[in-house]
Design a protein that fits this description.
alpha+beta
Amino acid sequence: MWTNPWSMKEGFLIGGGLVFAGLALQLSVGPVVWEAFTWPANGIVLAGFLAIIALVYILRKKVYAFQFISTYQAAIPAMVYAVVLTIIMGLTRQQLNGTWLNNMLSFWPFVLIYVYIAVILGVVTLKRLCLLRFHRNIRNIAFLLNHLGLFLALTMATLGNADMQRVKMICGVGEPEWRALEQNGAIKEMPIAIELKKFIMETYDNGSPKRFASEIQILTKSGKNIETTIDVNKPYEVDGWKIYQYGYDTQMGAQSQISILELVSDPWLPWVYAGFYMMLAGAVLMTLMVLWRRLRKATSKALWIYFGLAVFASIFAYFFFDSYNTKTLVPALQSPWFAPHVFVYIFAYTLLGVAVVIAWWKLADDLVYVSLAFLTIGMLFGALWAKEAWGHYWSWDPKETWAAITWLAYLIYIHYRQLPRHRNRLALWMLIISFVLLQMCWWGINYLPSAQGSSVHTYSSK
């Protein structure tokens, strides 16, 4: 070991070293205090982080460890550690003031592993950017869009989280309100006042909520006087704050005289969205690239197989979506994002199920590539929808946690298959394990104690 070239053994030792270093930090200094990374501290950290990545890239030919960072042998173990730690997160109930495994976002081993992954992403992206001058093809562009997009989303969301403000305001009819409650219960004076004019509620025949909204008047310190309606999935933005319909007096129902609004300020959002849209573009390009490569050389028999798989997956996704769509939808599900989010995910799930069955064919790799692209699209659609519905694109809700686990598991498979000396039997087991994790994300999560009463993805109707 530790003789050039390094293998995945060294990669696992590096990851294990980070885990032990994280445990030592957890014991010595306590959990990560994200509140300390407000502006300008997070800006300084970002500048330093980018400088480290640039330095690692520049010195990669002189320091072998830096060269190793941009290899599959480094990336695969890092993602395995990330999956294991995230599975622990998905199995334990997460609490804001929890300790160790009950607050994984502040758990040093979890944070260090994801920071390490971000370093790998940064170095690999910088390396490919420099190569793009000589090899401008669709494959390199798709690679860059996926990796740079993920790097942007991961780093900007993490560092910008400390600057995000989320407060709740309880507005009464005819009573302008300037004050709001922060997450820690403190009262905050807002730069805008909101007065509830009328609470609106529509119900289904069984009495369950079909729609609830608030007609409000907004007064800003700059003198703006705005009248608008805040609906679930339809927030209103003013002076850097997005206003969301959060709740109401459930005992009064349609006669409620108050409305609970959530106000969110997220100054780093444009950078995170830039990463999302780059990943969306990269996922589409990856799908087109795989299809073009295969269809161009496919026999007529293979074309019929591809066509049959696409039809089968589409029909399954349609009927599954239709069974959802005929239910009494709660207001949070009444969104333009609902159809593409669910349909794309189920389409990907179906193809991944087929990939497990036919894994002894080479065709399975292409199915996983295409399915992962659809998983990425579905996950990003969900993130964009979550921002419009709940004010945050990613909150590590149990469903989101298992979605990340599934996505990382299939990334591990794809990266492993790129190794020159990969083992087919191990690759098959990776596919099987990934599909089991997918089942946990799809329906198994409903039976986990960690998700009971804490998941915003749990909907019920009377």
